[in-house]
Amino acid sequence: MKKKVTMFVWNEFTNDARVLRECTALHEAGYRVFLIALRGNQEKLEKPLDQFYVRRVRFNWPKPKRFWSKFLIIILWGLLTWFSPLLGMILVAMWFLIYQTKCGSFLKKVIQIVEMIYWGIRTQTDVYHANDLNTLFQAVVCAKWLKNKPLVFDSHEVNLSRTGYNAAYYGIAEKWLLHFVDRCIHENHTRAKFIRRVYGFYPAVVYNYPFFSDETEVPYNLHEKLNIANDEPILLYQGGLQSGRGLEKLIDATPLIKRGVVVFLGDGKLRAELIRQTERLRLQHRIKFLPKVPVGELPLYTRNAYLGIQLLNDTCFNHYSAASNKLFEYMMAGVPVVACSFPEIRKVVTKEKIGVIVQSNDVNSIARGINEMLDHPEMRDEMSQNARKARLRYSWEREQEGFLRIYQELVKE
């Protein structure tokens, strides 16, 4: 009988490449996978996939959209207030707390967590798997408090030093919840060593390598799509448009770059500000923006690039210690990189000779690195060939072997 794995992830599971790869690996190894995720604007609550099953949870406070429904609510509220002014005041206070303060967002998250736990305990499962800290509580409740099942904690980030996770309670929660975990996974050895210093154990390491790509499919023509001259190099950044990734510095460096068009491929909180910065500097002819694309189609965009850009800033240990999945996505597409000098990234770039290392907080250093590749196309082509030679070693097809061993050990115990 097939073993069953229940996974939790705190996103809509539309572009989470790591979770997709892990679910696919488990399915291909003979496990039945049930993934519990959030729901965005999908019309259906459930979406069966070929490889595994996804249950998306969603709770939104109801908002009347039509005039007649709003009018009816006002009439009902008026009648209630006429009969009981206190009840009318309570309803107004509740409306204000839910729709106008962070209280509503907090309550919404609590309800989503409860619904995740509900679906987690309903399934007959052999192993529970929590992706990141924001689903670990749900997994602990299901695996250890309500059932007696093995629990895997797959931490994609360093929660003790991470942008947006500055409050002390994140560290307190992680330390406490780790007592219930049977296997802990981190994304690289730099982070694993940090976890050993803090918590006293060395987690399993599973790198976030992409699926192997042999470039058999014809890539999309980004030059045509973005109206860029065919002889103009595409200088590609792909990934989330978030703070701490050197994107503002890249825009500032663009006037110093001798030629080429910078293309941002992705979405995020910083997108609007980056567009405004581009317009303010009057660089619309040198900088283009594309929305994020499905994970499966991403290599067809990446292969258009003359070079790929990876400029994380040292704003927290989570950034400093990152191996960065986009680095390996560039490699898989045979695209050399201009990359920051952080240990995991520098190690791969220098060992495989697939790019140029720059200081990601220095506009001039960024421009020099890009110009070096533009001025020496023979060097760039050699780095591209090096990337193609190395990419099998950095593929998920190899890395998944270590990931599956974790499950093999768990189900034997």
Descriptive overview:
- The protein is α/β, with parallel strands linked by helices and 413 residues long.
- The chain has 17 helices and 14 strands.
- It has helices at residues 17-28, 67-83, 85-100, 102-122, 136-146, 168-177, 189-199, 222-225, 247-253, 271-280, 298-302, 317-320, 325-332, 343-352, 363-375, 377-390, 396-412; strands spanning 4-9, 32-38, 46-48, 53-57, 127-131, 151-154, 183-186, 204-205, 234-238, 261-265, 287-290, 307-310, 337-339, 355-357.
- The strands form two sheets. An eight-stranded mixed beta sheet has the order 3-4-2-1-5-6-7-8, sandwiched between helices. Strands 11-10-9-12-13-14 form a six-stranded parallel beta sheet, sandwiched between helices.
- Helix 1 crosses helix 17.
- The chain is globular, with a radius of gyration of 24 Å.
- The model is unreliable at 43-48 (pLDDT under 50).
Number of DSSP-assigned strands:
14
Rg value: 24 Å
Helical run tally: 17
Q: How would you characterize the largest beta sheet? A: 8 strands, mixed
The rough form would be described as: globular
Distance between the termini: 17 Å
Major β-sheet strand ordering: 3-4-2-1-5-6-7-8
What proportion of the residues is helical, as a percent range? Answer: 40-55%
Q: How large is the share of residues in beta strands? A: 5-15%
Low-pLDDT segments? 43-48
Q: Quote the average pLDDT.
A: 88
Structural class, from helix and strand content?
alpha/beta
